[in-house]
């Protein structure tokens, strides 16, 4: 290995890959995540499905680093078994319902067969998201509840059979620690250390207040709350001149655009679609005064640190994932309450040049980079899972 803290990782993923121009292509942000992960460890073997075409809705794609070895999940079982035998750690995803988690269960069995450390990764509360995103009507709600139970059952099974579980944000710890005694909580960030070191100062402000919301457009993300808050600001006794940029795509887009029209906000809201990362997405952030976080479950969005790095103020739900990061109280509001969000925007619009508040916010982002995230996970795996397994093997 490269050093005492490195290891060879076998990563199971259901995210599709496309072979093109002598490289594997996939979602741009996932590629950036894998690039940082391979820097922290000795080697990475990626077990993913390889397909002929990728969905057009995926938007920007990037090629995987050539240093990442790819094994097509369409290969035969003997090949999968032989490839798992080459790694030190097997990592499986924990966001699929039981009937779709067969591969995760298989990889845990292979890990056990070959004496490898096994890790379960849970990056978001997909189970609760199913319920929040449920279509209207009793059939949709019953179907969502069934999916909720299926995901929780799968997580319980996988966690109990893994050596450790890592989750993103404190909001997910309470769910997974019921089934695993070794839970690592990571703070998710896309920001590279050099980008954070070059944090952009706030631009000279003038004219309308520039608000931004960026997320996949689905009910759980709560973008409708941002629209409602903007409408409330416009209708208040002391109206605030503000406009909102919404970045992202998803099944909720038409409904959100209809809601925008219903509230008479057509000239105050623009839907900019999916933007490549980091530019032009960072350009949108640099043109924004405040970035709004409106999600309705216990996710910890990486966008927090993007926004801080580009000189934006942020407003977040007053829930555990955000409080655990140390977000200043002045930047929190009651989750799901658009009037509380509007009130917080109104107050913060008068503090855009508050250097003391900005300094406290910048402290939140110190030491929270994509490199730190992967290094801390690596250290946890090495110091607990691999050291413990080596100790048992030596007995």
CATH class of the largest domain: Alpha Beta
Poorly predicted runs are: none
* Second CATH tier, the architecture of the largest domain: 3-Layer(aba) Sandwich
The percent of residues in helical segments reads: 40-55%
- Compute the gyration radius: what is it? 22 Å
Return the CATH topology of the largest domain: Rossmann fold
Tally of structural domains: 2
Layout: helices, strands, pairs:
Elements: E1 8-12, E2 17-20, E3 23-27, H1 28-40, E4 43-48, E5 50-51, E6 61-63, E7 69-72, H2 77-84, E8 89-93, H3 102-114, E9 117-122, H4 126-132, H5 138-160, E10 164-168, H6 173-176, E11 183-186, H7 193-197, E12 209-214, H8 223-235, E13 242-247, H9 253-262, E14 269-273, H10 281-286, E15 290-292, H11 303-309, E16 313-317, H12 320-323, E17 332-333, H13 338-348, H14 355-365, H15 370-394
Parallel strand pairs: 1-4, 1-8, 2-5, 4-7, 8-9, 9-10, 10-11, 12-13, 12-15, 13-14, 15-16, 16-17
Antiparallel strand pairs: 2-3, 3-6
Helix pairs in contact: 1-15, 4-5, 8-13, 11-14
Could you explain how this protein is built, in words?
With 395 residues, the protein is of the alpha/beta class. The chain folds into two domains: 8-189 and 370-394, Rossmann fold (3-Layer(aba) Sandwich); 193-365, Rossmann fold (3-Layer(aba) Sandwich), CATH 3.40.50.2000. It contains 15 helices and 17 strands. The strands form three sheets. The protein has a seven-stranded parallel beta sheet with strand order 7-4-1-8-9-10-11, with helices on both faces. Helix 4 (126-132) packs antiparallel against helix 5 and helix 8 packs across helix 13.
């Amino acid at each position: 290995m490269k050093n005492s803290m490195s290891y060879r990782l076998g990563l199971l993923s259901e995210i599709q890959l496309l072979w093109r121009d002598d490289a594997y292509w996939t979602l741009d942000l996932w590629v950036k995540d894998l690039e940082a992960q391979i820097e922290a460890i000795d080697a990475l073997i990626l077990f993913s499905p390889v397909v002929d075409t990728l969905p057009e809705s995926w938007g920007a794609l990037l090629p995987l680093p050539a240093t990442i070895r790819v094994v097509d999940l369409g290969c035969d079982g003997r090949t999968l078994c032989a490839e798992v035998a080459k790694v030190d750690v097997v990592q499986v995803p924990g966001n699929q319902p039981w009937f779709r988690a067969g591969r995760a269960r298989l990889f845990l069995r292979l890990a056990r067969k070959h004496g490898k450390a096994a890790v379960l990764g849970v990056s978001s509360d997909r189970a609760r998201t199913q319920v929040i995103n449920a279509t209207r009507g009793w059939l949709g709600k019953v179907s969502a509840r069934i999916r909720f139970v299926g995901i929780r059952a799968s997580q319980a099974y996988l966690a109990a059979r893994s050596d450790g579980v890592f989750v993103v944000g404190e909001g997910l710890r309470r769910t997974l620690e019921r089934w695993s005694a070794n839970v690592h909580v990571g703070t998710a960030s896309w920001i590279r250390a050099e980008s954070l070191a070059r944090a952009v100062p706030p631009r000279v402000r003038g004219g309308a207040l520039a608000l931004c919301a960026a997320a996949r457009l689905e009910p759980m993300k709560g973008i409708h709350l941002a629209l409602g808050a903007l409408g409330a600001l416009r209708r208040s006794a002391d109206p605030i001149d503000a406009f909102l940029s919404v970045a992202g795509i998803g099944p909720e887009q038409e409904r959100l655009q209809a809601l925008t029209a219903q509230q008479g906000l057509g000239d105050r809201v623009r839907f900019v679609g999916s933007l490549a990362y980091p530019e032009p997405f960072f350009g949108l952030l640099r043109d924004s005064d405040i970035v709004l976080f409106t999600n309705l479950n216990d996710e910890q969005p990486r966008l927090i640190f993007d926004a801080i790095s580009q000189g934006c103020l942020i407003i977040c739900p007053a829930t555990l994932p955000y409080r655990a990061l140390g977000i200043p109280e002045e930047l929190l509001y009651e989750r799901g309450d658009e009037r509380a969000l509007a009130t917080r925007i109104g107050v913060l619009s008068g503090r855009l040049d508050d250097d003391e508040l900005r300094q406290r916010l910048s402290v939140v982002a110190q030491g929270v980079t994509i490199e730190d995230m992967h290094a801390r996970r690596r250290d946890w795996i090495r110091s607990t899972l691999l050291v413990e397994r080596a100790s048992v093997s030596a007995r």
